[in-house]
Predict the 3D structure of the following.
Amino acid sequence: MIAVYQGSDYFEAQLLAGLMEQAGLQVFLQGVALQGGLGDLPALGHLSIAVNNADHDHAVSIIQAYEQGDYALEDQD
């Protein structure tokens, strides 16, 4: 197992994990249970996504595509 994402945004972590699972990767989202115990001031970097070592490059390419906006929805007028 190797970590490919580290952050504190629960929704972004869930979205990235979903994109990776949709691509057929086995994903391990860690730190989700800590959300409720953080108190008023959120801790940074408590969420992480890990994948199998063989899937590292594929997972990183999904994260890069997400960051570049490749998964953005288009506005329809």
